[in-house]
Amino acid sequence: MISGATRGSGRGDALPAHLLKSENEVTVIPARGLGSTTLHDQVRELVAQSAGGRTDRPIYHVFCSPDPGIADDAAVRERFWTLFESEFGMAGQPYCGVEHRKGGRLHEHRVYGVVRPSGAVVDLAWDYVRREKCGRIVEFEHGMEAVPSKHARSIARRLRQDGRPDVANWLVASGCTESVRPVARLTPCERATEERTDVALDDLRRATLSAWRETSDGPAFMAALRVRGLDLRRGRVGPVIMDATGTAHLATRVLGAASRRFEGERILAAVVRARLGNLQLEEMTDGRRGHRAAPGDAGTPAPCDPGGPRTAGAGRVGFRRFGGDPFGPDGGGIGRDGRGPGPAMGRLRAITPARGLVLRRGLNRLDPMLTRYGAATARARHATDRIDADAARDQRRAWALWGLTDIWGIPLR
């Protein structure tokens, strides 16, 4: 029994589109707790029902794929879903889904809403191990062999706590609890990278490990990589190996995975960093986090942008400031034409009397405006004082006539 799950927001049509891919023989299964008829609308309805929950990932996508050796496939899947919903307390949760037939094998996908009517969110902690426990129970009940799992010991312990010692004993007898924990060849992210670049990561690992074993220092290791069509660059968190497509792979991770897979003993990251730590590496220019702009490089400025061709210091972006350096966009306070304040004062003294009269009239107009604003402020202040004085007089009059009053002036006695 194989199962898997992902959790997400459910917004958009990516998940329904994935489930309805034409490469599979697709059958939409009856939904539970939903009124919509199409899969796209059902997923949207699940998201809408979760509006009152305190989560931004209200969708839980689960699939199960029974072993082909089991004759009654439908009964096996139904048994798995019963165990799954009991384990996670999702017996009443709405869901929708599809059945896929691919390569002669039938498997089922369900999309559950994890927000309860009360607004509480279903507890999905340790969901991988809990789903594997359901799968082991199904295998036991249908006479199948136990699927090896790195969580076998934890599953056996939990089965005994749940009152299923028969399944726990079967799991122990199969040897799964004592066997070496299996390690996946690729992580989901690495698998996606391999599909995108068409570069087999095992080939990359073999070449990198071979270059590592036949050298003893950093420069020789880098030269050996280049002979194999690879390169060593400086990445964000450490040295990275660049493949032929320009994709970056963290060197410590590649060497660790290669040594564990092909030699049985992992090369520690500290050992890799010790050998490569003193290398002066070039910054990677492509691949993951590639094409990053250099600090301070703003690209080609527009004609009217600060630092553009119209201003001093063309090609750079800076801030206008008093007394800036000569390379700043403000020309160091000497004007765009490179002249200081002296020539400007000379030009003011040299203007004609008629031009000077116009300039003085324009400057003198500021004074009446300031006086007008000041007079308006004084009138507003006097009006406020009059209102306060009237309120105080009314309060004194109320005390004199009526005694103590409330805030509306009504006598309290």
TrEMBL record:
Residues 286-309 are annotated as: Disordered. It holds the Pfam family Relaxase. InterPro entries: Endonuclease_MobA/VirD2 (IPR005094). Residues 24-143 form the MobA/VirD2-like nuclease domain. This is MobA/VirD2-like nuclease domain-containing protein.
